[in-house]
Amino acid sequence: MVRHFLKDDDVTPAEQAAILRLAHELKKSPYSARPYAGPKTVALIFDKTSTRTRVSFSVGVSDLGGTPLIIDAQTSQMAGKESVADTARVLERQVAAIVWRTYAQAGLEEMAANSNVPVVNSLSDDYHPCQILADLMTVQEHRGDLKGLKLAYVGDAANNMANSYLIGGALAGMHVSVAAPAGYAPAAAMVSRAAEIAATTGGSVSVYVDPAEAILNADVVTTDTWISMGQEAEKAKRIADFAGYTIDESLMSQAKSDAIFLHCLPAYRGYEVSAGVIDGPQSVIWDEAENRLHAQKALLVWLNEQSN
Ligand code: CP
Ligand code: NVA
């Protein structure tokens, strides 16, 4: 049966741990796995802009012996012309996997339902699960075992990154706490799904309005842009609504003194994070950006193995 990765809990806690172990191995031995030798081709489709995802999946597929095929949806027949299902039926006969950055989660589900090769969500409006694998790998490098660590996310807690931290962090057995102003809290269904998972892994989920409360004694502090791709028209309103939610030196001091700071990037210094924090000694954002490569390679190897 083919396995897809459309959201963080498309894998079990044990499977997430196995993918992360493989990611560390591949970081040490980058060319030790060659599932795409041939070379087989992997389709990388982009409906939204990208730097890290485009580079890390391209390099990763090459490292795994394959050929990355970048498809800019706007210049393909996908942009409002051909159905997702028909696109899947064409691609599945020629590529080894389909990696897609898009808007609606429903599109990914339709692609997966019509594809007998793995489909990977490389960011949707609802989730960014590949980023969370890289983030968890980075936390392991700097803090060791994930179980029992407190991860605090401050900012737009209704966006794709927040959802993936809630679900992916809960799978890893972390204590995930988020803080957001009114109107930007995570959906109740997302919180209850994360809490249900956390109950099986020893983690927990907490939602606050006050960022200082969420960050208190955290091991990991993180945030994301206040204006996600597709929300550009709300820029002025969002900047006003998020006043007081910048992770600066004073907020960061609420966390443990050895806490690390993560940001999926791109970052907007002076908005969701101060330059002092993101460019300061607690920030591990460049390790995090590099780990996209290793974590995604592990994911592709694992999906390929599971799907054969
Ligand atoms: N973090 C992330 O996904 O970056 P890009 O948008 O540059 O791919
Ligand atoms: N929440 C951001 C993440 C960018 C990697 C967005 O969707 O634009």
Automatic annotation (TrEMBL):
Gene3D superfamilies: Aspartate/ornithine carbamoyltransferase
Alphabetical list of SUPFAM superfamilies matching this protein: Aspartate/ornithine carbamoyltransferase
Aspartate/ornithine carbamoyltransferase carbamoyl-P binding domain residues: 3-141
Keyword set, alphabetical order: Transferase
Xref: InterPro entries: Asp/Orn_carbamoyltranf_P-bd, Asp/Orn_carbamoylTrfase, Asp/Orn_carbamoylTrfase_sf, Asp_carbamoyltransf_Asp/Orn-bd, Orn/put_carbamltrans, OTCase_ArgI
Cited Pfam families: OTCace (PF00185), OTCace_N (PF02729)
Alphabetized GO MF terms: amino acid binding; ornithine carbamoyltransferase activity
RNA-binding recorded as keyword: no
Assigned EC number: 2.1.3.3
Reactions it catalyzes: carbamoyl phosphate + L-ornithine = L-citrulline + phosphate + H(+)
Family as reported in the entry's similarity comment: Belongs to the aspartate/ornithine carbamoyltransferase superfamily. OTCase family.
Annotated protein name in UniProt: ornithine carbamoyltransferase
Organism in which the protein naturally occurs: freshwater metagenome
